[in-house]
Amino acid sequence: MQDWPGLIEAYRRWLPVSAKTPVITLREGATPLIPAPVIAGEIGRGVKVFLKYDGLNPTGSFKDRGMTMAISKAKEAGSEAVICASTGNTSAAAAAYARRGGMRAFVLIPDGYVAQGKLAQALLYGAEVVAVQGNFDAALEIVRDVADRYPITLVNSVNPYRLQGQKTAAFEVVDALGEAPDWLCIPVGNAGNISAYWMGFNEYKQAGHSRKLPKMMGFQAAGSAPLVLGHKVEQPDTIATAIRIGNPVNREKALDVRQASGGDFMAVSDAEIITAYKLLGAGEGVFCEPASAASVAGLLKRKHEVPNGATVVCVLTGNGLKDPTTAIEHNDAKFHTGLAANTEVVAKVLGF
Ligand code: AN7
């Protein structure tokens, strides 16, 4: 098998890069589309469900797709430093790609609301991390100001190159299925990814790679669902810290996507997110982070509306290892601790 070159090389003709662009890559992309028979079984009626497991990117989330583009273009423009606000995954990706490109990375995070693995990554990759006493939305305002005033490139999803890179996930889905799915279920925070997928599906259709476009089904956590409510949420709250966002920057784009695709936005509760998270783990053998499970929670909530025989793709945006704390607190496993290291004792507790 030929070595995968990373998504910029693989999809070069679809991306705003030239021979002069220094490609900063960790060979992101080419993530698996995994059949999900247990989830499909909950729906029945010949519905097929697939998981786009973007948690298998180099830093463990879909953010790598956007970051290889944003960082390569920042490097091309001569930038020496990048900055972002983040609920965790953007900071991990920005740090890894910026350092790989020999640039400084500054990241602002909401103090106390970033999953352990993500914080560990930002630190280990060599970012300069600032934890602020405020939520993601407050941190984003600050980094926008800083990027306006100083020679630092902003790499949040207001940076258009981010969405360019992220649209390649839609290409991969169509390449794998040979057609676009009927539904795409996706977690929504800042609404960059849903907008990027829609762009990708449209470009591929225009080029004749697919005949249809999916309905775009965006799911937000009930405690931070500004797109469902139709207004900002001042104090967003959810166990899915990745999507703890009250004022999405790509709001207008996302509303257009909903309309143009005939899709919908809906809120899922933390309890529904955790149910889907556990089903993915113990039912399908797929470990994603809580925010990602919102896509499956949403699909199960809307299962009666899925047409018979339809193909559904749920996007699993981040790896479960990002947030071990939630996994350890929320599972239905039998966990026997403190036992003597003795075969009889162990066999007995296992029920033999
Ligand atoms: C796992 O890292 O906003 O709707 O700062 O980490 O494109 O914002 C993360 C978002 C879904 C939402 N799933 O995507 C950040 C950040 C996971 C995420 C989303 C995020 P968008």
Give the strand line-up of the largest sheet.
1-2-10-7-8-9
Instruction: Identify low-pLDDT runs.
Output: none
Let me know the average pLDDT.
98
What general outline do the C-alpha atoms trace?
globular
- Pattern of helices and strands: HEHEHEHEHEHEHHEHEHHEHHEHH
How is the biggest beta sheet arranged?
6 strands, mixed
Indicate the radius of gyration in whole angstroms: 20 Å
Describe the structure.
The protein has 352 residues and is α/β, with parallel strands linked by helices. The protein has helices spanning 7-10, 37-43, 63-76, 89-100, 116-124, 136-149, 160-166, 168-177, 192-206, 226-229, 251-261, 270-284, 290-301, 324-329, 343-349; strands at 33-35, 48-53, 81-85, 104-110, 128-132, 153-154, 183-187, 215-221, 264-268, 311-316. Strands 1-2-10-7-8-9 form a 6-stranded mixed β-sheet, sandwiched between helices. Strands 5-4-3-6 form a 4-stranded parallel β-sheet. Helix 3 (63-76) runs parallel beside helix 4 and helix 12 (270-284) packs across helix 13 (290-301). The chain is globular and about 65 Å long. The mean pLDDT is 98. Bound molecules: ligand AN7. Ligand AN7 is lined by residues 61, 86-90, 157, 187-193, 242-243, 289, 291-292, 317-318.
Task: Describe this structure in a few short sentences.
The protein is of the alpha/beta class and 352 residues long.
Jot down its keywords.
352 residues, binds ligand AN7, alpha/beta, globular, four-stranded parallel beta sheet, 14% strand
